[in-house]
Amino acid sequence: MHNHTAPNSNIDQDSNHNPDQQTYASAALETGISPLRASCQLQPWSRTIHLRLARRHKGKLHTANRVTFSETPEGQAGNPALAMQYEDAQQLLDELWACGLRPSEILAQQVTSSTNHTAVLAATERHLKDMRDMAFCLLGGSNCNRL
């Protein structure tokens, strides 16, 4: 992993652009540590996402390094790989959304919605055919025995 940010990265930008985060950002700046910033880049040729995490401390940029894995006894949770404030997690989700990721629940709803739409459309088309047949019979058409 390279320790530089992409040209379009949000890592090195001021977090005060969002009014909802203003209080959070102000509190973080009082401690000298800025909010955690995430930058995600989709690598379409390998379907991977490069995730970069950074924050400022005493005016200097600090970036996260690779996550390491340790053997953990079965049944134990192990230590968290990363702890972050709620607002930082939201910013990470926003970055992942920008890369095209969607929660699985939303994708399932889209498929269900599409299936439901198709079923409703088919039912509407059958209803319209019935209405046309009925109107044709009422206007004196032949072959109206099935109504």
Which structural class should the secondary elements be placed in?
A: alpha+beta
Strand order of the largest sheet: 1-2-3
Mean pLDDT: 75
Sheet-strand content, in percent, reads 5-15%
The number of helical elements comes to: 3
Tell how many strands the DSSP assignment holds: 3
User: Nearest-angstrom radius of gyration?
Assistant: 28 Å
Helix content: 25-40%
How many domains in all? 2
> What is the H/E string?
HEEEHH
**Major β-sheet profile:** 3 strands, antiparallel
From the spread of the alpha carbons, the general shape counts as: elongated
| N-to-C span | 72 Å
Q: What are the main properties of this structure?
A:
single chain; 147 residues; 2 domains; 39% helix; elongated
